[in-house]
Design brief:
Helix content is 70%, strand content 0%. By secondary structure, it is mainly α. α2 packs across α7, α4 packs across α7 (88-106) and α6 (74-84) crosses α7 (88-106).
């Protein structure tokens, strides 16, 4: 096993012990004002075309961990990283990987469902 494999396994273990990806995702949503809050920050960062692809009915455009970090800011991501005991870049990567599909599922008809988390 390489150092990177060992480190990756340690990060995955830390995330699993804290409730997994869903727990991180739920905390991120609640701390940023739900989907509306996160999507507003992404729009303000100039990522409206990416956000619109998730909410719309077409193909979801990807978002990078760097774009997540720039748009959402270090403070909130650092809090999540500290809470879950993982590096900030891992939090950004998890959000980049899972946010497009989560928003897509919360907006099946091209608009966010009324039941989608909207407030902290």
């Amino acid at each position: 096993m390489s150092l990177f494999s060992d480190l990756g396994g340690m990060v995955e273990n830390a995330i699993a012990q804290q409730g997994g990806v869903n727990a991180i995702f739920t905390q991120a949503l609640s701390g940023m004002g739900g989907y509306d809050g996160i999507l507003a920050k992404l729009n303000q960062a100039g990522l409206g075309n990416v956000v619109n692809s998730w909410v719309g009915t077409g193909k979801n455009l990807p978002i990078s961990p760097e774009q997540i970090q720039a748009a959402l800011g270090d403070q909130h991501l650092r809090q999540l990283a500290a809470q879950f005991g993982v590096p900030i870049d891992q939090i950004s990567a998890l959000l980049a990987q899972h946010l497009p599909n989560a928003v897509d599922q919360a907006s099946p008809n091209g608009t966010l469902a009324p039941s989608a988390p909207k407030t902290a």
